[in-house]
Structure of Glycosyltransferase:
Amino acid sequence: MQEEMTGAARQPRCPICGGTTFEPGPRGRMALSGVLPRCAGCKSLERHRVARVMFDRLGPERFAGWSAIQFSPDPTVDPAWFGSFELSVYSAPGGIDIQIIDRSDCAYDYVGCSHVLEHVGDDRAALNELLRITAPRGFVYLNIPDPFAEEVTRDWGFPKPEKHGHWRVYGRDVTLRFDRYIPLQPVLAYRGTDPVTGEATGAFLLPRSAETYRWIVDRLGRDVELFSGPPLV
């Protein structure tokens, strides 16, 4: 009986939907650890679950009454956390081009952009647009294919078909782009471990006020660091 309980305790569980059944990822991909990476329930992958753990630590109750927009479908956050939630899919009817966002300044408290920035030609314009529409009490959640996997960004200057339409693959030197494009904006880098596969990955948070900056740093502790820009204190 004790062995059965121990085995059950070790069963990986998705922190997004609570599922315990997993399947291969896109194009049959396995995790580097050899584990099935995609949740059969919510279809989350490593990056989604790492970010959900991060948001759980931040405390979703803070988002009650916040206005939110998410660029690209992403199970990381729960729309029910927010007072209002808008989803934009670029290729779908009504989808918004993040290089020219047709929304007013400070229109949203939460702006989520997951695996989109690498698909646009002018990432400088996109970053500034994402910040422009973010209200002072809020932040931008930015997720790009793991930039810590490569040292140097490869930018082709066009959407490469064999790279899923990516204009570029970011490397660790993405910090140089942040420094040039948004020099006054602090960029916080979070690093965590997926509870299902054990893979490490992360995301960037761009707080728009000193209060939000301190809240993020206090909640995430040593798992977050200032990656680019000045601290807000």
